[in-house]
Amino acid sequence: DSGPMVSLGLAVPLFDRGRAQRQRSAAEAGASRNGYVLALRTARGAVREAWEEASRLAGLARARRSEIEQIAFALVEMADRGYRQGEISLIELLDAYKNEHDGRLQVLDLESAARTAQLELERLTRERPG
Question: What is the pTM of this model?
Answer without folding.
Answer: 0.59
